[in-house]
From TrEMBL, chain A:
Organism taxonomic ancestry: Bacteria, Pseudomonadati, Pseudomonadota, Alphaproteobacteria, Acetobacterales
GO molecular-function terms, A-Z: ATP binding
Superkingdom of source: Bacteria
Sequence similarity: Belongs to the ABC transporter superfamily.
Key words, A-Z: ATP-binding, Cell membrane, Membrane, Nucleotide-binding, Transport
Annotated localization: Cell inner membrane
Cross-referenced CDD domains: ABC_NikE_OppD_transporters
Protein name in the entry: ABC transporter ATP-binding protein
Keyword set includes GTP-binding: no
Membrane association type: Peripheral membrane protein
TrEMBL record, chain B:
Record keyword Methyltransferase present: no
Name of the protein described by the UniProt record: Peptide ABC transporter permease
Naturally occurring in which organism (per UniProt): Asaia siamensis
PROSITE patterns the record matches: ABC_TM1
Protein keywords: Cell membrane, Membrane, Transmembrane, Transmembrane helix, Transport
Protein family per UniProt: Belongs to the binding-protein-dependent transport system permease family.
Amino acid sequence: MTGEALLSVSDLRLQHRQAGILLDGVSLTVKRGQILGVVGESGSGKSLTGLSVLGLQPQGQLSGTLRFDGEDLTRFSSRDWRRFRGRRAAMIFQDPMTAFLPVRRIGPQIVEQIRVHTALSHQAARERVVSLLGRMGVPSPEQTAQRFPHELSGGLRQRAMIAMALSCDPELLIADEPTTALDVTVQTQILTLLKEIGAREASVMLITHDMGVVAQSCTDVAVLYAGVVIETGPVAEVLQAPLHPYTKALLRAIPPMTGSRPERLPVIDGVPPSPDTRPVGCVFAPRCPQVTPDCAIRPPMRGEGAHRAACVLVP
Amino acid sequence: MKGVASRLGQMVLVLFGISVLVFAVFFATPGSDPSVRIAGRGASPEVIERVRHAYGFDRPLPMRYLTMMDHLFISRNLTSYVNHGQNVVSEVFAAAPVTLSLVLWAALFWVAGALVFGLIGAAFQGEWIDRLVSLLALIGLSIPVFWLGEMVNLVSESRFHDSWLFSWVPPLGYVPFMTSPLGWAKALILPAMTLAVAFIGLYSRVLRTDLLTAMQDDALRTARAKGVGPWRLWFCHALRLSGLSALSLFGLDFAQLLGGGALLIEVVFALPGVGHLTYQGLSTLDLPLIMATVLYAAFFVVIANALIDGLYRLLDPRMGRGSHDG
Amino acid sequence: MIFSATGRFLYRRKSAAAALGMLLLLILCALAAPLYAENVGVDPMESSLAGTVLRDGKRVDIMQPNDNPLHLGLSPIGPSWRWGAYALGADSQGRDIAARLLYGARASLLIAFSAACLCLVMATFCGLLAGYCGGWIDIIISRALDILWAVPVYLFAISLSVVTVGHDLSFGPFHVQPDSLLLPIGIIALIYVPYAARPIRARTRSLSSAGFVLAARGLGASSLRIVFREILPLLAETVLVLSPLIMALCLLAESALSFLSLGVQAPAASWGSLIHDGEGLIYSRPVVAIAPGVAIILTVLALNALGDAAQAELRARGRR
Amino acid sequence: MKALLQARNVARMYKLGGGAALRAVDGISLNVARGETLALVGESGCGKSTLGRLLMGFDRPDSGEILFDGQNLAKCSAREQRALRSQLQMVFQDSASAFNPRWTIGSALAEPFRIHGRPWSRQSLETLLNRVGLSAAFFDRYPAALSGGQRQRLNIARAIALSPRLIVADEPVSALDVSVQAQIVNLLRHLQAELDLACLFISHDLAVVRQISDRIAVMYLGAIVEEGETLALLAAPSHPYTLALVEAVPQPGKLLGTPLQGDVPSPLSPPTGCRFHTRCPVAQSRCAVDRPELQERPGLRRVACHFPLV
């Protein structure tokens, strides 16, 4: 099964009436058994890309293609979407505290999702919830299912969230900054869990701002900048030999944990373009140290094999 | 358990505060002497002095307060100043069922109306139907309730009484449930609807805003991502999340009405409820009667507050984890 | 800055502009009351049971034999479409309804406006003190407001009015006339203090825990400086937005009190007392009660619409 | 080296409803020398922000003393404390709420001078803006017009306006993107060297802390578990918790380590003995009963562990 494209997004664009152009050509592919890291700074459109896959993006003009296992998502009716969400692709969010309904117990919230999508009886669904929670590494799952979200620690809440997402055996799990609200020691636990899920249960699309997280838990990566995917490829290759100047600069800006301490951290001058004033050519050109006259035209993805970047410097 | 005890203590404290407040308003307002009022305008100083002695107004205030509380709550034999020998406490208890019936009917209308209008407004946000509902709610909120009562009387009792629409309307007044359940309902439907109009306006607006806020909530985004359908989304998620603030508002208003807030409606529709009783007391300056009704009102408000608080804790598990602010 | 902001607000929110226009019109009408009374030649305060009025070229009695066979006695003259005295008819005392409506507007609007101002001043004081100081000051103020809140508002207002309105009152060196408007103003202001103080207190609390207040403390600013320079200017927006809504409530309360003859004292008029006058004539001359009711609805509606628009504007500003 | 800021056995407890008490800070002693940067590191709920508030004098400790330049902050009057503020400034994490939205940037910057009655001119404020890398054109604009990174620069400008001697920075870069974060870290280091500024840097991000600090104090559940010189401490942690933190930092070119088990226990009911023993991979029976004291170790290191790693 591995290797076959599960989700392919190509040239996805989203224009919002007030906010302007939010996505401006997002192309990426999630293959079965893959953990794709979607990485970018705030405002780069990484969360929107995740939401668009479930049809939850804010109102606006959406164009491009979204294919999931051969089906065209852009043609989905609201009924199709309801059957798709949570059943075939599920999503977990940054803050598990607010993502759960605060006034209902954890168990019934997961049961609800199971019963929306399957014909399982209430009792069977409940048993399934307990076994799911156990599989996610939640200690004493039966008691935990009876708890309210605020009674759990951040790590347990996120595990419960993942259990809910996996409750209907989806083929794709979209994780939107799943560890940002958590402590570092707990972050490692959740990343380990996601890695296991990616290897065994579902393909994962891990949306994050942290290159370190991508490096440790993803197989592939797509780098987003200002609503455009500027580089994709296997994690090892992209991190070892980044092609795009933005990816290079981003990696350099991370303070090192070993070796000598640099006098100054390398920085990227300037700020990302706002959604209403966007450059016509390469979106990174205004900040790029290696800008050439060719950058005035938006470069397509170039490169050999799986590792490709949208930059004129790539042979 | 400790929480319940402290809650009870607070209730007693509030009730005590209210009784002192009401007592002070009637007997210790600076510059206003109750004996002058009872003796009437232009009474001679001797008469005023006699009144003062007869009613015990020459005794110190705390003593008078204690005596009145004793008559009200312990011996329960407080008698009217105007109609001597009439027991005020039993009068209040006789009037209570009328008010209770009226307010229950009104609550029925206003909860139903607010739900319908609020949900319509939120579901069709920004469309013409939402604007229409908002305008109607605003108008409902702006009508003085006693005037609306007059107009309803005018239409249903006089101008269109003979039409098919209002021919069933009985003459003004109250019919006890035990006498005739149908007559009871007939007598109360129009007053209750009149009373409910302003509340429908208020609550549908509150509910609409809360629903729209809830729909923006992260938890609702999760629900959509789960594949929950629109009906479940509105009723099981949004309403569950947003109904809480409307609920606490409801408890307070319900209790206020029960405690005599429906006075104007009772006067206009000639219903002999607690509000009407207070009105009588006011027009004859029957201070013990007013004292009794106001305290009865406050009692209901305090009890209802406590009940709503408990219900809130039950429905929102986040409450009740200590007094941690935030 | 303030004027241009107001201008932009009115331009963006047409409903607010319409509401403001309506209110200005009402105020103008109230101001023009003596003008009307002199022009058509009526005295709005004197009863004139034996008077006559020119109608359709004929001089007719103000109190006419009843046209409804079921009602006995005299009934006042009805409305007419022509401009002139008694255009809206007369009340049971033979007074011109239209003139009384205009004079009533003066009393109603004055009471509502003054009561709202007084109420907001008191509420801001309480809310600011409770919200900024916190601790036991907050507990005492909040509990005191809870106690006020536990008495149904109208019942409280009525009780206070019974004790005070219509009696000679002396507060130390101050003497209040029995029919002074100060009494209803003070009473109505007082009963809505808890209502207004709650949101003000909540806003103060959130403002005083905001980052910039902490930053000001970190810079070494004193509490007074923080309250007056950092908190009050932002709190003023909340109070300003609240004011039309409070004024609407005050107007309704005033009309209710006057309807029960506990507000404005006869022969002076307010919209509420006019409805009271109309109650007795409700089946024969309903216009006597309808006209002041419509006036109240229009005013309250305009105030509520203005308040709504201001609230929406404030929310939008908060988002930006 | 004379300590500029000194905390001795500082403790702060918050009483919650129902008789529960939260020991946010539980007997902490530390020193910050002139011109030095001490980083306070720990996970959420470890009390590092509470300690920051105590050191700033926003809150008073239940016991212990805080000496700033020899003066006890916990004891001096409100007036004296306000006067000390010009020496002691704070930079907050949330730059969006740190400025009154109705004030222009210029008036926000002038405020510290007005409060302390110091002279200022438009020109001096514009120089201040330039110093933190902001254009003087922002002078008459509102804070809402700035991006997150720019606002954090403005925050720093306000903090250094009165030439303080110590800055307490509470998670100043956590809300920022990596590239912006690098800019702010560079700016802070540059200003510190230029102004001989001491800094207490509160953060959960070890990579940033490594870049900016001279010494690190690691906190766990209200107490310091390890303290030492930055590079040495991160290269060879003595406390198992420090090691776990270092291993958990996600970095390119590093494999995902074995995570610590469980979550941080609730500070409402901390474990007995060593606070960390419930999650410690090398804990022994003694750790559950006997609470280790912070002990001096060679190489200017202090560790609170019965079985230190190095």
